[in-house]
Every structure is written in structure tokens, then in C-alpha cells.
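Supplementary Methods, section 5.1.

A reviewer requested that the exact input to the structure prediction be made available. We therefore reproduce it here, unchanged from the version used in the analyses.
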Amino acid sequence: MRLPKIFLAAICCASVVLAADSIGVFGQKWTVQSATDWVVGDNLLQLKISAEPPAGQPRRPTKFALLESKPYSKVTVEAEVKRNGRSVAIVYAWQDDAHYNYAHISVDTAASQNVHNGMFHIFGGERVRMSSLEGPGSLPTQDWTPVKLVFDGESGKCYVEVSGKRNPSLEAVDLSLRWGRVGLGSFDETGDFRNVRITGETREPRQFGRP
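The structure derived from this sequence is encoded cell-by-cell as follows.
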């Protein structure tokens, strides 16, 4: 039996609503997979439910809150973070679910865990490390820790300061994704974010991959 077009449209719209929620914190709106995975407080965002990448799919982060904004060509993300496991993540240059970069900020050194404590690139497949294996772990304690991510799409450079210090593990250059949205979350753990401040230069969205 063929379903009426209006009924099919209703099903389609319902699936879109169920696939993503919106939460408000830090004076802005953020898109998340499910609002029940998060707790919003006074200038505080807590990821309470961890998630592994779906079985059979490329290993890349899926559990992050994505700022509802125009894409940034230059951006600075300042925050205090607290890991509940071993790490948290900051997404930048997000153009779609299969094309973005992220900083994995971890207690581990990159030399001991090469998929931790580094800058990573997603371009239609598995995560790929972009940064050096040199440098110390970034979150030695589970205390609140100040971090700052700085991205310049013109040069492709991005780095993260932790407690005011730079680390070669958290510096990279990517010339394929030079603009995009930003997000906060984790690869497969949980974590907390507070006092988040995002500043920069936005631009109009363009066809994927266009400079």
C-alpha cells in the first residue's frame, strides 16, 4: 500500500525532531542528539551519558553539543573543563557529521596513547591524528582546568592552551576544513564545562569544502 505524501512527510519530519534536540546554556543554543544526556546549570554544562561510536561505523566522536551559529572562519573557545573519565573534547571546523576537527584533551600523554591528547581530523572516515606525539598529558587532575582553543581558518592553524600553557600535542594545521561550527563534549566518556566564552569571526555557509 502506498502511503499519502503528506503522511510520509510527517514521518520524515518526526524523525528529524527525534534525531536532535536543542538546549540553552552560556546564553546560546546548542544542538545535541538527546537533551536527556545533558544537565544544564547556572553557567554549567554537564555531559552525563557517554557513547561509543556505533558498531561498524568509523570511530569518531558523536556525543557533543554543537553551537547553533554561523560557521566560524576564526574562533577562540575559552572554558573551564573537568573530566569525569580521562578526557574531554572540543570540536571545531564542523561542516557536517563526517567532516570536522576536534581537540582531544586528556590525562594521557600522546606517546602512551596515540589516539589521546591530540588534534584529530575527520574527513568522511576514521579519525586521523594531526598533531605531534610530543608533550605531557593535559589534565593531570579531575579539578576544574582552564582551556583555550584558538583556530584561524585562513592559515589552518589551531592550538589549545591548558592552564595558560601550550603543548605540541595540541597544535595542528589543516587546510581542508578552514571554517565551521564548534562543539563541546567527549569521545566516549563524560565531562563538565563551565564559564564558556566563544568569540571570533563568522561567515556565510557555503558548499562543503569550498574556501
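The first strand starts at residue 21 and ends at 25. These observations are discussed further in the main text.
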